[in-house]
Design a protein that fits this description.
Largest sheet: 2 strands, antiparallel
Order of helices and strands: HHHEEH
Number of strands: 2
Distance between the termini: 11 Å
Structural class: mainly alpha
Strand order of the largest sheet: 1-2
Radius of gyration: 17 Å
Number of domains: 1
Strand content: under 5%
Length: 100
């Protein structure tokens, strides 16, 4: 059971890290290369199927490049990346050990 839990935790942590890394990439783009802003999330949920909404959200929009909050010089996606990797690694290690 510990192995399955470890794999699921790793999968979720990697997915979260991927989203955070993508957000950091969008924030690092120069102003002329930032994708154009799109429709609001509520509007997209009403109009598009869920898979299309997910694709549009993950490909980013101009508003994602705006850094509105920092702590110790790092923007929110950087903190999310750090913590999702740290918590994911902790969860994997603790569950992997529990099978012994």
């Amino acid at each position: 059971m510990g192995t399955v839990a470890s794999l699921l935790i790793a999968l979720v942590a990697l997915a979260g890290a991927g989203v955070a890394a993508r957000h950091l990439y969008i924030q690092s783009l120069p102003p002329g290369m930032v994708p154009v802003c799109g429709a609001t999330l509520n509007y997209m949920w009403e109009i598009f199927p869920p898979t299309e909404v997910l694709r549009k959200v993950l490909t980013g929009s101009g508003e994602c490049a705006k850094i509105e909050w920092t702590f110790l010089g790092l923007a929110m996606p950087a903190w999310v990346l750090i913590w999702v990797l740290a918590l994911g690694a902790t969860g994997v290690l603790l569950n992997w050990r529990s099978r012994e």
